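If you are new to this repository, start here. Below is one unmodified record pulled from the training split, so you can see the exact layout before writing a loader.
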Amino acid sequence: MAKKDLKVLSAREAYGRLWREWLKEHNFSLAITFVLMFLVAVSAAGYAKFIQMIISAFEINSPSVIWWGPVGIISLAVVKGLSQYSQLLLQNKILSRVQANLQYKMFNSLVNMDLANLLAESPAALATRFSADIELIRGSTNSILGSITAILTVIATFGVMLSIDWALTISLIFIFILAFGPVGIVGAKVRKISVNTQKEIAYMTEAVNEGLAGIRMVRTYRLEKRLSDNALSIFERLFKLRLSIVKWQASVSPLMEILGAVAIGLLLLLVALRMQVGAIDLAGFIGLLTALGVATNPARKLGGAYASALQGIAALERVYELFDTPNKIKDGSFNFEKKEKALGNLNFSNVDFLYPDGYQALHNINLNIEAGKSYAFVGRSGAGKSTIFNLLPRLFDSSKGTISLDGRSLLDYKISSLRDQISVVSQDSILLSGTVLDNIGFGKEGASREDCITAAQDAAADKFITNLKDGYDTKIDPSKIKFSGGEKQRLSIARAMLRDAPILLLDEPTSALDAQSESQIRKALDELSKNRTTLIIAHRLSTILDADQIVVMDQGKIVDQGTHPELLERGGIYAELFNLQFDLSPKNDLQNRERSFSGTKKNNWSNPLFRLSKFLGL
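And here is the target side for that same chain:
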C-alpha cells in the first residue's frame, strides 16, 4: 500500500464513522443494550438510597425493616446481575459481528486494491491489521460502551446523593471534574505510543515470517544469530512501547484512587461539620458514603476507557487509511458478450511505465503482436519482460502511450471482461485451499466436473490425480502441499486449458522443473498454445527457438526482434545470450530434443551441428 502519513482523526471523526458504517445497522440491539445499561446504573445507585432508608428505619425502630430490607437488597442485586449479564452478552454479540464485517471489508479492500498500492507494504504487515488493529478497535469500542454504563451509574448515584444533601454532592462533583485534566494528559500519551506500537507489531510479524519462510537458506548460511538479533531489537522496542502504555494506563487507576480518598476525606470533614448544625443525620451520612463507594469504581473505569478509546483511534486511523486508498486503475465500459472472445491482436504504441518509486521499467515500447502467433520475450534480468506481462491484464496501467487489444485501448474494456481473455501459466504454480477439482475449476466460473477432468487429461495431469487417495476430491492445504513442481505445474496448465482464453501468457513455466517433468509439461504447453496468441518469457532459450517472433529487450527497451535464425545472424544481445547458454561443440549434443511452444516452425534447432550450420549461413 502506498506509503503516506496517516490522517489524524478526532474521536468524533473516528468513532462517528465507526457508528455510521458498522454500528448503526445494529441500532435496535444497541437500544436494548442501553436499556439494560440504565437498569444496571439505577440498581447500582439504588443501593445507596436503600441503605439510607434502612438506617432511617432502624433509627425509628420500624419492625417492617426486618423483612423489606433484605428483600430489597436481594432484588436490587438480582436486577443488576441479570441486566449486566444480558447487556454484556448482547454487546459482545454486536461487537463480534462488527469485527467480522470490518475484517471482511478489509480483505475485500486488499483483494481489489491496485497492485502498486498493495505491494508497497509486506503481506505480514498487512496481516497484522486483521489481528492487532481490528482487535484493538473491538476492545476500545467495548470499553466505550462499558463507559456508558459507568457514566449512567455515576449520574444516577450523584442523583441519589443530591437527594440526600445537595451542597455536599456539588462539592464532590467539583473534585471529580478536576481529575479529568490529568486523565486527558495520560490519554494523549497513550494515543501517541499506540500508533508506534501498532507499527512495531507489523514489523515484528514481518520479521517472524521472513525468518521462517527462508529457514533453509538461514540455516545453510548460518544466519540464525543475525535474524535472532534483528528480531530481538524489534521485540525490545515493542517491549518498551508496551511498558510505556502500561505505565501511563496504570497511572489512571491510582489517580482515581487518590481522588476517591480525597472525596471520602472531604465528605467526612463536611459531614462532621454539617451534623454539628443538624443539616444531615446519620442515615444521610451513611447513604452518602455508600453512594460515594458506588460511584468511585465506575469513575475509575472511565479513566481506563478514555485511554483505551484513544488507542482505538490510532487503530481506526490505520484501518481507514487502507479502506480509503483510491484505485487509479479505473474500469472501462466495453464488455465482451457471454460467449464472445477476443481475436488476440495486441499493439503497444509508445508505451512507458514508471513504478510508484519512480523507477522507469519501460521506455517507448512499440510492438505489434499478431493473433494466433507466438512471441517470446528474452533479455537480461530487469529488462522489462515481466512488466509487459503485468500491463496486459491491467495489473498496472502504462504511464504513457497506449496498449490495445483488437484495435481498442485496454482502458476501454471492463477489467473483468479483459481478464477473461487471458490465461497465465507462471513458474510459481499457485494452489489455493479446496479440492484438486476446485483448483482446476478456478480457471472458469461454473465449469462442470467433466470439463475439469477433460482439462486435466489434456494437461497430462489425470494420471497422478487419480492416484491420489481421494482423486479429484483430494483436499489441498496450501501450507502443507506435497505435490512436486511438475504436478503443480500440470494443475496450473489444466486450469489455463479450462479457461480457454485467446491470449496465453507463459512466464518461465518450466524454469523450476527437472528434465523429465519439463518434457511432460512442454507437450502440454504446446497443446495449450495452439491457435492462441502466446507470449512467452523464458530464460532457457532452448524453449523458444521456434517462436514466430522473438523480442529482445534490454533496460526497458526493445532492442531487436525477429526469428531465431535472423537474430543469430544479426548478432547482438540475443546471440550473446544464446552462445552463453549453448556449447556449439558436437560433443555436447543435446540428443536432438525438439523444443517448441507451438511456434509455426519445427526445425531441429536443438541439434548443435544444425545450429552451427545455420549460424554460419550454410
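Two things worth knowing about this chain: The mean pLDDT is 81. The chain has 19 helices and twelve strands.
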